[in-house]
Write the structure tokens for this entry.
Amino acid sequence: MRLPHPRGWKGHSRNSIHLASSTNTMPRTSPLVTIALLLSLGLAGTTTGEETGSISVSPTRVLLDGPDAVHQLLVTSLSDTGIQADLTRQASFRSRSPKILEVSPTGVIHGVSDGRGSVEIRFNDHLHLVTVDVRRARVPRTYNFERDIVPLMSRFACNTSGCHGKAEGQNGFKLSVFGFDPMADYVALTREGRGRRVVPTLPASSLLLTKASGGVPHGGGIRIRRSSGDYRTLYEWIAQGMPFGEAGDPKVASIKLTPGERQVEMKSQHQLRVVATFSDGRTADVTGHAKFQSNNEGLGTVNEFGLVTIGEAPGEVAVMANYMGAVGIFQAM
């Protein structure tokens, strides 16, 4: 993390003001003129698109395979001094093929129908195109409890020691800590609680949904918005009869967290992306299903979407992403 320059520092950079004394003198000016000059210098010292040496978009080609496949684009600038900055939240995204794919204001692509299309990314006078192939967009989704449901319990901290993961559970409902025992969690959800936790004939009345979304008072508060994809996942899983999955279903082999490390400015933001590789070789963006955690929230925080916000104090912070027991680390320096 870059530290502020001490008073009187004599170095030069594109983003600094020279404060050292000089033998040259400037004519005396009025206080208003002096303030205006300092303000203009301060504004000139901030990083802008024009000052970036280059801008890149990652990845340059995307494959969306499956009805709920998504992919997070990352937009990064590289200054002439070698400093990387995340521009994902500042860039604009537009689908050039709206019948095939859509893209959110934060750069998340999802498929609409099979075919090939592209996404346009703009930042100031920079323009990039990403090619997107969409396959099996309208194939009915099949659910796997360990792959699709347990990560949601972890992401929203339902199975932590401070909630239903504690030794005695919470209000009669106990989950294994961090989902280490999926079968025990499945039994607790589907066979205990007098059949009220999940109701396949009327999914919306399931306590799993009504409590998590705030329809029924819940000690843990609202965890899932009714309009979210996570709510839809739980609803459809219940409606399909709460399938556990098959023994031969692919398992997560590893995850890749991008970026892995970065020298950052204070008060900056950085979007993370998590891509899982499964035992059958398939890869998928699971950013929206991973659980993120900062090792020092005084220096940097991370939200449920993987957006890291660096604080105002100097220091290093690490952010961990966890998906089905596979872990990745982002190091901010």
